[in-house]
Amino acid sequence: MKRARLWARVADDIRPLREPSTIGKALLSEEEKQRLIKTASMRPEWETAYLAAVLCLNTTARSSELKALRWSDVDLFAKTLTFRKSKTDAGQRIVPLTDVAASAFARLRRRAEGFGPVEPSHYVFAAFVPKFKLNGKRVADGVIDYKITAFDPTRHLKSWRSAWRTLTKKAGLPGFRFHDLRHTAITDLAENGAADLTIMGIAGHISPRMLERYSHARMKRQAIEALAFKAPKRQVMTQTMTQIRPLRLPTAPNRLKMMVGPNGFEPSTSSVSTYHGS
Question: Tens of pLDDT along 155-174?
């Protein structure tokens, strides 16, 4: 409506949706993150959700951005990923690939090449129809193996929601949304000291309120690190103080005797040197 210059006519009558006061569960601990990824890699029917999760944690990508990726957007030699289609224009960006992300794309590439030549216009997460070999009568009983009976690289996969719900429950994280992986990745960037502009350059569009929350996460991390830095100093100081022996001064008569010496008020050189050496 803005492009058609019609928004001004209705803007006063439309109340914008309230922005959520929180960013969801968001903060996975390192142990939870590793458990989720390990669980996702356990079953063949979770392969797509597993690879998508790895890419999200390493690129901050939304699920819609991953589904829209074509092979022309992936440069494994330069190790860069280009998001051409996103939620907003600000979401169009180029993100460097970690070694983990590059390995995930290489695995997706090998899977695609198993069905024929891969064209730049083909989707990375191409649509496919799996046929499972089950351990029982239901998928929930366990999948022994599976094969893809149909593969269409000209269409992208619609969803991995069902697999995601099952594996998160298995990992002990029921209700954890795929989008929360993006929040986790952005929070990791903030807590590791990335500047706001760097975070926006990697994650794309972030509302000012959301960016402020990530900035607060960074400041909290810096505050905690400052506390962790001070604790050893106090301990070292305590240990040092206990190791120092108090200086034992001679009693008053001895001090006078050492000051006077055997030859009067000008002690001999040997007496002085003996005092200072003690």
Answer: 999 989 988 999 999 999 99
Q: Reading across the β-sheet that carries 93-96, which strands appear in turn? A: 74-75, 80-83, 93-96
Quote the CA–CA distance of 122 and 112 in Å, as a whole number: 9
CB 26 within 8 A of CB 184: yes
CA dist., res. 239 & res. 21, Å (int): 47
Q: Two tokens at 269?
A: 């050189």
Name the nearest CA neighbour of 103 among 76, 67, 122: 76
Half-sphere exposure of 3 (CA within 13 A, CB side): 0
* Maximum separation of any 2 CA atoms in the chain, in Å: 112
CA angle 37, 42, 43 (to 5 degrees): 120
39-73 residue pLDDT tens: 998 888 889 999 999 999 999 999 999 999 999 99
CATH no. of 23-223: 1.10.443.10
144 sits in which H/E element: strand 143-156
- Contacts of 222-231 with C-beta under 8 Å, sequence gap 24+, read 222/193
Per-residue pLDDT tens digits for 222-257: 777 777 655 455 554 444 444 545 445 455 555 445
CA distance 40 to 56: 14
Residues 200-216: pLDDT tens digits?
Answer: 899 988 778 788 888 87
Rg (Cα) of the chain, in Å, rounded?
33
| 232 phi, psi to nearest 5 deg | -60, -35
